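are you around this afternoon, could really use another pair of eyes. what follows is a protein written twice so to speak, once as letters and once as structure tokens for the fold. i want to understand how the tokens follow from the sequence so walk me through it. anything you notice is useful, everything is just below.
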Amino acid sequence: MKEVGFDPSVLHFTTLIDGLSRAGNLDACKYFFDEMIKHECFPDVVCYTVMISGYIVAGELEKAQGVFDEMIPNGQLPNVFTYNAMIRGLCMAGKFEEACSMLKDMESRGCNPNFTVYSTLVSYLRNAGKLAEAHEVITHMVEKGQYTHLLSKFKGYRRC
């Protein structure tokens, strides 16, 4: 690319990787992710999250976990979007204990979960019949001040 006078930035690579990911071409995503590093254009948290999300959508949890595990050693702290993607992927794979551990890891690193993170975890736990675990997450959510969103979700529900 530089040979033809184009010096791509992280934004250029991330946009390309995101498009390829949405098209389901994860091999090309990995190729360009590696290429950007080879050209000393280092991925930021958004680029890592795009890679992780692409692998999650494709059901490639191990590859997503591998990218996630590279982030911190490479100087990029996961953000709320990164954690939500990983928690969703872990839940989709039925790894609920690991998803709950990911929530704790998130908080221990100073990344505050938002309603989407809690909602993702509670929904998957509920759908898997893990109501005690879902209740624990809801209780934690209320303790963290996320109850207004929770109440709006229950609006319209009736007790059976």
The chain has a mean pLDDT of 89. The chain has two domains: 7-77, 79-160. DSSP finds nine helices and no strands in the chain.
